[in-house]
Specification:
heterodimer; A: mainly alpha; 0% strand; B: 290 residues; Serine Threonine Protein Phosphatase 5, Tetratricopeptide repeat; 4 strands; elongated
């Protein structure tokens, strides 16, 4: 490559007669003075002349080709050559079918679709925090849900202890001799509290609320006892439960744990 | 003197029957008394969480073979003791299952047994026994709704989302039909964990009211482009969510004069309002409703 200011594109245009008049004169003047460029232009001219010589034959051949039928003829030729003796396997036939030239645009579309899908999936999963902002869906992190459950456990344990206290007081506060006239309401409340206690168990254990768990378990035990007594509560049974509650200072413990929970776990 | 055999034979039979009956009663009475004593002792031990000692006494009642008035209760409390002893979960599960089959089983104790079976199955599953989940899944259509609900709640906690999602139908049912906020809030949190889109669907299907639908909280820490906390939850859980915020964030809000109760009231009154609180450390807290 020489260091002349005239570029190859100009010579190609000069030889094919596409240069404008002023530029053509400049290039012609330069060729007169530069032997290197003259040699190079001469070589290009020879290539052009050779091409012109076969131009007619090429055009003749091109006109003879049936461009519509060519792809299927090529495919037929290729697969006929690659075909093994005997019947082709199912996989081969599927592959041959999919590789038909007329299906190539479809295949290309499928591949492109898969690629775009994969990119979309990657972008969607790469940053999950985008999800809540993109729509109107509910969303909360696991950490937040755990904290919400802890808050719920605290509230419900306080509620459980308060209500248990009332129910126990109602059962045990009745003067001797009137024990037979138990209101059905307290029994129903005891059963309801029994039903709720199971939800608390997991949270009291999970959040290590050991004192609350212990007191709730003892209350549950008393309620189980009371829940088995149908109809009138025998005086002897009532006295036993009353003694147990007093001996273990259950009400005092309930109050202490309740206050602790109300002030935060 | 002739004996009339027709009269003698029934008389002998009657004497025999009475004799055997009184002997049996004589034996049964001390046994019942022993069982009662054992049972009372066992219950005191259970109250004090002395599971092994209580279990021994209950086992004596069961082994006596008398099947007296304390037999069924002894089976139930056996389950209670075994479920509290580590490694005896399967035995506990069998004891509860035996109890619920008994004719004189008490309805309250049956419900408690069903709940304990679900808890034990969950524990066994967490220890690697995948077949234990059948006990929970099988209770999703239990006739007692308390059992059904608890099974769904426990199933929602299973880390495998495919399994946990089996609880969705019952959890949706709780939100749709129950009035008790303790149950519905739990179901909402469980659905948020398992299938937030199902929760959205249930909340959207509710008849429209004046109350807002969704509470949104975003917390940006200083220098961060995306929020550290990003939450969209149903308005029904708003109070719980605000109280469940990080203590530091709550302290920052209090310092700026924002009380959680006041924010809740103001949000409920003015649906357009956005609370934007800039803490001293540069964090920004945004709370609004839609």
């Amino acid at each position: 490559m020489n260091a002349c200011p005239i570029k190859r594109a100009d010579w190609l245009a000069y030889l094919s007669g596409d240069l404008e008049e002023g530029r053509r004169t400049t290039v012609a003047e330069h060729l007169k003075e530069c032997p290197d460029c003259r040699r190079e232009v001469e070589e290009i001219r020879r290539v052009f002349e050779g091409a012109d010589a076969v131009k007619g034959e090429i055009q003749e051949v091109l006109h003879s080709v049936d461009w519509e039928a060519l792809p299927s003829r090529v495919a037929d030729y290729v697969f006929a050559k690659a075909k093994k003796p005997g019947r082709a396997s199912l996989i081969e036939r599927i592959r041959m079918g999919l590789l038909q030239p007329r299906l190539r645009p479809v295949l290309a579309g499928l591949v492109l679709g898969l690629l775009l899908g994969a990119v979309g999936m990657y972008l969607a999963l790469r940053n999950p925090s985008l999800a809540p902002d993109q729509g109107k869906n509910y969303y909360a992190s696991q950490e937040f849900l755990d904290r919400a459950e802890l808050e719920m456990a605290r509230r419900e344990t306080v509620d459980y202890l308060e209500r248990s206290q009332y129910v126990l007081l109602d059962f045990l506060g009745t003067p001797s001799g009137q024990a037979a006239a138990r209101p059905g309401l307290s029994m129903a409340q005891a059963r309801e509290l029994l039903s709720k206690k199971k939800y608390l168990n997991r949270e009291l254990e999970k959040f290590q609320m050991a004192k609350a768990k212990a007191i709730c378990d003892q209350i549950e035990m008393l309620f189980l006892e009371l829940a088995q007594i149908s109809g009138d509560l025998p005086e002897a049974e009532l006295a036993k439960i009353r003694d147990l509650v007093e001996e273990r200072q259950l009400f005092l413990k309930i109050n202490l744990v309740r206050k602790e929970l109300q002030n935060g776990v | 003197m002739g004996f009339n055999m027709r009269k003698i034979i029934p008389a002998i039979c009657l004497v025999l029957v009475l004799g055997l009956g009184s002997a049996a009663t004589g034996q049964a009475l001390p046994q019942a008394s022993t069982d009662e004593k054992l049972f009372q002792e066992a219950k005191l031990l259970i109250f004090d969480k002395k599971w092994e000692a209580a279990l021994d006494k209950l086992q004596d009642i069961v082994d006596s073979g008398a099947r007296g008035p304390y037999y069924s209760q002894a089976i139930f409390y056996k389950g209670e003791c075994l479920s509290s002893i580590k490694g005896r979960e399967k035995d506990a599960l069998l004891a509860y299952k035996e109890y619920i089959q008994l004719r004189d089983a008490n309805p309250s104790l049956i419900e408690k047994s069903e709940g304990s079976i679900i808890d034990l199955a969950s524990t066994l599953y967490n220890k690697g026994d995948r077949s234990a989940l059948k006990e929970i899944e099988g209770r999703l259509d239990h006739p007692n709704r308390a059992v059904r609900y608890y099974a769904a709640y426990k199933l929602s906690l299973v880390p495998d989302k495919t399994i946990a999602s089996k609880s969705v139908i019952v959890l949706e049912q709780i939100i749709r039909t129950e009035k008790d906020p303790e149950l519905t809030d739990r179901a909402r949190i469980a659905l948020l964990r398992v299938s937030p889109e199902s929760l959205k669907s249930v909340e959207d299907r509710k008849p429209s009211s004046d109350s807002p639908r969704m509470l949104k909280i975003r917390i940006w820490k200083k220098g961060m482009k995306s929020p550290e906390v990003s939450i969209n939850i149903p308005w029904a859980l708003a109070d719980l969510a605000l109280n469940a915020m990080d203590e530091e964030d709550k302290a920052a809000m209090r310092k700026k004069g924002y009380d959680l109760n006041k924010i809740m009231n103001d949000l409920a009154k003015s649906k357009e309002k956005l609370f934007r609180i800039e803490a001293d450390d540069g964090s920004i807290i945004e709370i609004w409703i839609e």
